[in-house]
Design a protein that fits this description.
alpha/beta; two-stranded parallel ribbon; globular
Length: 181
């Protein structure tokens, strides 16, 4: 998502779900690129997200428009979606980029099309990695530039339990499913 959105050091980036596996990686990778990172996560996880390098943290459920000035965010990385998408577009600056690869809060949303066309926004859907991404990611991990966060591991046979735990939203980082030997 960061690659496709062309994130760089001049960007002010907002990431939702910043305490999850994808979100925590986004925080680290965006900071690695030099972006200013605003991270949204559960209140109990804000300290941990700040520890990943977020410049500003906002508790999930807060009114973002009181915490962030309208038209001040260059990039939104949103894997939460749901009803908040329209509000996120209002926060975006002219020429901003919105990227998503998930919709944990729900796949259906309403947006004001004027935000899209009057601000010349770009919406980016991401379901697969571009060519250089995986090898770069491994390189960053090996160099200690980012660290994958594992909240908990589950045997593959316990995938239903893992999903139930995931939906509780009490974890920080990724869940790992381990296949049988």
């Amino acid at each position: 998502m960061l690659h496709r959105a062309g994130v760089n050091s001049a960007d002010r980036l907002l990431v939702t779900g910043a305490s999850g596996g994808v979100g925590s990686a986004v925080v680290q990778l965006a900071k690695r690129r030099g972006a200013y990172v605003i991270a949204v996560a559960g209140e109990s996880k804000l300290g941990a997200v700040r520890g990943l390098g977020a410049d500003q943290v906002i508790a999930r459920g807060m009114d973002l428009s009181t915490e962030i000035q309208d038209s001040s965010v260059d990039v939104v990385i949103d894997n939460v979606a749901g009803e908040q998408v329209g509000k996120l577009l209002k926060l975006m600056a002219r020429g901003g980029r919105y990227a998503s690869s998930g919709a944990i809060a729900g796949p259906i949303t309403t947006i004001d099309m004027r935000d899209l066309y009057l601000k010349d926004l770009t919406l980016i859907g991401c379901t697969a990695w571009d060519e250089p991404i995986f090898s770069n990611l491994i390189d960053y991990i090996e160099k200690g530039e980012i660290r994958p966060l594992v909240a908990k591991t589950f045997e593959l046979k316990d995938i239903a339990t893992a999903q139930q735990e995931f939906l509780k939203k009490t974890h920080f980082g990724n869940f790992v499913l381990v296949p049988p030997p």
